[in-house]
Each structure stands twice: as structure tokens, then as C-alpha cells.
Amino acid sequence: MCGIIGFAGKTEAVEVLLDGLERLEYRGYDSAGVAVVSTDGKLQVKKSKGRLSVLRTLLEAEEPMSGGIGIGHTRWATHGEPNDVNAHPHVGQEGKIAVVHNGIIENYLEIKNSLIRKGIRFSSDTDTEVIVQLLEYYYKKYSNLMDAVYAVLNRIKGAYAMGILCSDYPEQMLAARKDAPLLIGYGEEGNYIASDVTALLSHTRTVTYMEDDEVAVITAGKVEIYDSDRTLLEKEKHAIEWDVTAAEKGGYAHFMLKEIMEQPEAVRKTISPRIVDGKIVLEELKGTGDFIRNVSRIYIVACGSAYHVGMVGKYTLEKLLHIPVEACLASEFRYSEPLLGESTLVIVISQSGETLDSLAALREAKRRGSKVLSIVNVMGSSIARESDYVLYTWAGPEIAVATTKAYTTQMVLLIMLGVYLARELEQIGQEEYDAIVEGLLRLPEQIKQVLNELDNYQKIASRYFNHNSVFYIGRNLDYALGLEGSLKLKEISYIHSESYAAGELKHGTISLIEPGTLVVALATYAPLVEKSLSNIVEVKSRGAEVIALTTDKTVNTISSQTSEMFVIPEVQAILQPVLGVIPLQLFAYYIALNRGCDIDKPRNLAKSVTVE
Ligand code: M6R
Questions:
Q1: What global pTM score does this model have?
Q2: Is 607 a catalytic residue?
Q3: What residue's CA is closest to ligand 1, atom 11?
Q4: Which of 240, 261, 292 is the last residue of a domain?
């Protein structure tokens, strides 16, 4: 979704801003803009609909912007269509103040109408413009920028991360946040604000996370952060471990392919520090034994692919722990009546740690007395900070909109959590436990083995990329895996695709199977392979073309029905989806490549969904 970068420094700001915006492109956007204030107080703004290249061309065609203080924005339209006027930064009618904003101002219409009645003219359809017009209104009234900022923050309702420039204060930028991420970076050339740490990695890895209701005053040499009472705060600085190359393509055609290929390492980093002397050690859960023994129900709450990990978790944790485990879509969970309370554990899964629905579900769970354990990739993100316990996936930055390495690392961590809890609750025998631990340690090498089959995935994709509808079918863990395979395909290739529990086909969906329909049949879950085979026969006998995903142990059974196959090594049933997802990711990738799609930035999608 929208991205913010800001710089207060000793060098020209505009290049820093453009570099930051490029690094934020992956979040998804439809317009971009920058504002810079010169030392003599001239506020310069350039913005345009479309990709950053359009903005660059616009900037090159005119007199260079000069000044060391600036803010930049990539906008993903919510209020008002994507066009030049609705792009950020927005400037007040006096031309003194510029604002970039992420989030949604819920009471913008009421404020807008009251300002219009006072004679203020609006030029855009955005909710953001009310912030800047209101700021100018209060600035005129109080003649003090901080007074005006606090007056605005008291008046607006909703979510915001914002950067503010004022031509009367050419040496500083201001920042404020509530329910939308914003961090401050400390660099040698100056100080920064950003909505996402990847925008800062080439400049600094020392950051402070802004909390709700805080306001920051940032100059080239100093950062001051105040709370809602205007008390100056002592904030902790954090060192980011990710390095800049992790957020670059490094010779790959797409971030998605790079991130798929990084999975052995990401999985290894997530697993191996947590296995000590043959035991799963989750330091993060130290001292929680009493609570764990009391847990009588688990909800796994997430969105999109993270929810699909939750579906894998539902089958796995229920089997391991013998307590009810439900996987819930966060957007539904928050408005339903989940059975929350002290003995319910809510597990929230999120790569970004900023998905609004997941965050809202977390807050609801806590409000109703449940403990929340989150599985998160981005350190210091809102979900991580608000959870009772956090397990970090060590996937590194994930740039492609379609998640791959975050999905696999979330899955291994959830499986590890399940096995850890099973041991704490004495629900797992030593032999089974040891075998799973050994299996976990072997996974990175086995993922490499699956990745070695690139030619096969590419060849099969090149035969089917013209299909316009695909069905994924599977049972149990294969069903959960099919959900992810299907989402990967539709989001990057724009092919209509559905995923079904194979046993459900006969209850309706099979009427859609006709000669030539493509079915991806998942048959890796050993206990149900025979049943999956029957489902393959059913769709084949109605003319479907079938690609099967199976293991080296069951390949002979499945090959009687189809010769198009992705074959992966057989491992313990609960670990099988970790390997199974890899061919599905690559199949989707190569299909999208053949169709000439914008793989890393699919249409209409954003990497991190911070609005409802
Ligand atoms: O950052 P999160 O893991 O909370 O994001 C949740 C979903 O938006 C995300 O998994 C989405 O479905 C993926 N981009 C799909 O590839």
C-alpha cells in the first residue's frame, strides 16, 4: 500500500527520496510524488500518476529541486482515483505546508465540509487533503507549527502515518503516527522517516519505531520525539539485521524468483537456532509452561497466504495437541463471536506485521482476555509489538507481492511451535519427536533438491499457460496446500483458479470439469494418496488434464493416471507441505512469466494491506 520516505540532511534530499520510493515500489502504488523545502523556505512539489519513472521524467524536465529537507510518497488509491491531483504530497491552499500520509482519516468529510464553510478551497478528492488544510488553518490561528500539529491530531479520527514540511521551518520535518507504521532512521548524512525499513537500508540500519500518538521533530542533526502530552521521550534505538543486498534483485529476473530460491537459507535460519541438542528451544516462550498447560483452544488468525499457513497449522496442531484448533480469516474473526478467554491461545501470523485486519483481530483477542502469540517477519512491526509472545521468521525482507519465503518460514515455525507445545503437554512420544526434529534439520537440503527441478516446472508451465481456469484439489494437508497454490497462480498470472477439498468435488464443483479443464491434483499426504488417486480418476474421466504433485514414494501409483508430475521427496507427513509448496510457487511463476505479467507487482495488489 502507500509508502512514505522523508529526509532531513546535509545533502540534496530529492535523490534520497527517489531512491527510497524505488525501494517502496514493491508495496504497490499508482502515483508518486515528492516535496522539498529549500534553505530559503521555498516549498517545491512534484507528483504524478503512474510509475516512478514518470515522476523522474517530470523532475528531469524542470529546474532541479534544491534543499536538504524533503518528503516523498507512493500512493495506492483509496479516496479518489489515481491521478496527478490526488497524488501526495498535498499542499494547503496557502502553499506553506505539505503532507504525505498513509492510512485513512475516517472523519474527513465532516472536517472538509467545515473548512469549506470557512472558505477553504480543496483541490483533491482525498482524505489526506483535510490534514494539510486543517494544519494550515490552525497554523494561521496559533502561529506555531507544533501547536497546529497537535490541534490537528486531536481533531482527526482514523489511522495515519504522516510526514509534514512547512516553508517557515526550512530546517525540519515533522512526523506523526497512529495505527500505521512509521519509523525513524539515524544516518551519517542526516535523519530519515519511512513507513517501511527497506526504504532505509541503503542509508542506515539504526532505527526507532514510532508509537501511536507520538510526534517527531527531525532535523539533519537531531531527532526529538514527543508523546501526546508533548513530553519529550527517551526512545530506544534498534539495529536492523537485514542488509541492503537482501532487498535487491541480485541478478534474478524477479524478486519472486530470488525469494523462492532463498528458501533453503531462510528455512535454515528460522529452524537451526531453535534446535539445541536435539530439542526445539523456543526461548521466546520461556516461563509460559503454566499458561500452555491451561490452553484448551487455539485460534490461528491471519489473511491471505498467512491464513493458508494457518490451515496447515489447523490440521497439524490439532493432530499433535488433541485440542480444538481453528484457522480463521482475520477479517471475519474480528466481527464474529470467537470463544475467547483466558484459556484460549490466539496465534496471529503475518509477514509484514502490519496487516490491519490481523492487527484488529489481535487487539480484539487481547481485549477479551486471550493471550496472543504472533509469527511475524518484520521486527518491530505493530503485530510484533502488541503480541504477548513473538516468534520471528528469519526470512529477511520479502519484496515480491506474492509471498514465498515468508510463507515457508511461517509454516516451519508453526510446525515447530506445534511440536514444542506437544512436548510441553506430553502429547508426543520421544521417537516421533526425535524423528520430526531430524526431519526439520534436513528440510533446507531437501528444499534445494526440489528447487533443482526448475526445468521441469518451466516445461510444464510452458504447456499450460494459455488455460484460463485451473482447479487445485487435495485432501487434508494437501487441501491446505492447494489453497496456497491456487492463490499464487491467480495473483500473479491473473488466471481464474479455485482450490477444493477433493472430497467436495462431487458436491457441486465437478460440474465445471469438462474436456481440457486443467486440474492440479495434490497427492503428497501419504495416508490419503489412494483416495486422491480416485479423485484424479474422476476428473480425468470427465476430460480434465491433470498435473499431479506427489512424492517419490507414491509416484508409481499416480503415474498410472498422468504423466505430468511434480515429484518431491517424501518426508514426515507434517513436514510435507514445506516441500510441496515449492513446485506450486514455481509453476505459478513460470505461468506468469509466459503470460508476460508484472510478476513482482501484480495489478491491484499491495504487499502490505494496512486498510480494512
Ligand atoms: O503481511 P501479511 O502476512 O499479514 O499479509 C497477509 C496477506 O496479505 C498476504 O499473505 C497475501 O495474501 C500475499 N501477498 C499473497 O501472496
A1: 0.85
A2: yes
A3: 304
A4: 240
